[in-house]
Design brief:
Elements lengths: L8 E3 L7 E3 L3 E4 L4 E3 L13 E4 L2 E4 L17 E3 L4 E3 L13 E3 L4 E3 L4 E5 L5 H13 L16 H4 L3 E4 L2 H46 L7 E3 L7 E3 L3 E4 L4 E5 L5 H6 L1 E7 L8 E5 L4 E9 L8 E10 L3 E6 L5 H12 L13 H4 L3 E4 L2 H44 L5 H9 L1
Parallel strand pairs: 17-20
Antiparallel strand pairs: 1-2, 3-12, 4-11, 5-6, 7-10, 8-9, 8-11, 13-14, 15-22, 16-21, 17-18, 19-20, 19-21
Helix pairs in contact: 1-3, 1-7, 3-5, 3-7
Family: Belongs to the type-I restriction system S methylase family.
Keywords: DNA-binding, Endonuclease, Hydrolase, Nuclease, Restriction system
Protein name: Restriction endonuclease subunit S
Length: 420
């Protein structure tokens, strides 16, 4: 990125900040902000807010899949321009984007820290500065205790880079404009990825319900969301095809104390669901597993070899010869109709056992599975390229924010150059 710089710089006096423009200063957070302590006593507000991926969003309390509080009176009042921090579990690098500015009036959990900036500060500039600190992992080095958490008494000494107020406002406006452009590009890439996934699913769904012969005579499957299937296919419940099982409780402590080569699969979907590795195994062979509880309930995987599952995983072991990759896709078409949607979504073994799928001959299962593998590789390659673009755009956004709030860019000179 090529942008104009300030004419002179000075040492900030803070090692991880480095040099800042000569006319800027550095002050502790408590000198330019106060902690919000206004509780929602008497239910003054019902507009529930949440910190999600670096944004404050409004939540629907009637469609809440998280744990509900005993009373929303314990929540804290948030006003437009307040900055919210999630300063718990700091050792978890994946839990990034821990701060955001609120553009709403409402309430948010008291587990978060909420601050209000002084009148001589632009809250939007401070919010961008905190985002830069977050990306540089500044908060991580400040935490202490088992959960690596911070409260305001500890956090208030955080050094804050302070340009004059007009420059703070100019930086915030510059970043709103430039980050808005990047965010629009990211949103477009994400939209294309979603459309790609829909197209992939449509092609696969057609193959596992209609087969590969477009001229095959058809019959009614008796399953409303599947409709007609080839005449020679069988429609059978899973309990006639599989022996159903369940994983067991496996703690992080057990994994830590019994490290080994055999994977432990959990309810998560990242990293192929791997929670860790231990020196023993509960399952051996070819299985389909699925997540029984939580936000990922109904997500299926094909597992092979020796492995373990936690208690939030169900297992399917075939009692006849089947192509598990074909069957996994066939089951996937139906699970959304069977997941119990409430505070904690579930798809338990007794429900899974009654799901019906349509089955061609084993030979045709194999042919369809081969076609699915080709489709998956094609769409996966395209999707990877799009996700790489998103990663690069996010890196550019983070670099732009960091450069602007630390004075590596003279944003007013940049704005004048663009206007000329």
């Amino acid at each position: 990125m090529s942008f104009p710089k300030y004419p002179a710089y000075k040492d900030s006096g803070v090692e991880w900040i480095g040099k800042i423009p000569a006319g800027w200063g550095v002050a502790p957070l408590f000198s330019i902000s106060t902690e919000n302590r206004d509780k929602n006593t008497g239910l003054k507000s019902s507009n529930t807010l949440s910190l999600s991926y670096g944004n404050i969003i409004e939540r629907d309390k009637n469609n809440n899949f998280g744990l509900l509080p005993d009373s929303y009176e314990t929540y804290q009042i948030v006003k437009f321009g307040d900055i919210i921090f999630r300063l718990t579990d700091l050792q978890n690098d994946r839990n990034s984007l821990r701060s955001a500015i609120s553009r709403y009036n409402g309430i948010i959990t008291s587990a978060y820290l909420s601050i209000k900036t002084a009148k001589n500060c632009c809250p939007f500039y401070i919010s961008y500065l905190m985002r830069a600190y977050d990306c540089e992992k500044v908060f991580y080095s400040m935490g202490g205790g088992v959960r690596q958490s911070l409260n305001f008494k500890e956090f208030k000494y955080l050094p804050v880079i302070l340009p004059p107020l007009p420059e703070q406002q100019a930086i915030a406006s510059f970043l709103d404009r430039e980050c808005g452009k990047i965010d629009a590009l990211i949103a477009e890439q994400e939209r294309l990825i979603a459309l790609l996934a829909e197209k992939r699913q449509a092609v696969i769904s057609h193959a596992v319900t209609k087969g590969l012969n477009p001229n095959a005579p058809m019959k009614d499957s008796g399953i409303p969301w599947i409709g007609m299937v080839p005449e020679g296919w069988e429609v059978m419940p899973l309990y006639l095809l599989f022996r159903l099982g369940r994983g067991r409780v496996i703690s992080h402590e057990e994994i830590h104390e019994n490290g080994g080569e055999y994977p432990v699969y959990s309810s998560q979907t990242e990293d192929d669901g791997v929670m860790g590795y231990i020196n023993s195994f509960d399952f051996e062979g070819d299985y389909i597993t699925w997540t029984t509880d939580g936000a990922n309930a109904g997500t299926l995987f094909v597992r092979s070899g020796r492995f373990n599952c936690t208690n939030v995983c169900g297992t399917l072991f075939a009692s006849k010869i089947l192509n598990l990759y074909f069957v996994k896709e066939a089951i996937s078409l139906s699970v959304k109709y069977f997941v119990r949607q409430d505070i904690n979504p579930k798809l338990m073994n007794n429900v899974m056992s009654k799901i019906r799928i349509s089955l061609p001959t084993y030979a045709e299962q194999n042919r369809i599975s081969e076609m699915i593998a080709v489709i998956d590789e094609k769409y996966s390659n395209i999707s990877k390229k799009m996700r790489k673009q998103i990663t690069l755009l996010k890196e550019r956004r983070a670099a732009l924010i960091s450069a602007a709030v630390t004075g590596k860019i003279d944003v007013r000179a940049q704005s004048k150059a663009l206007a000329a």
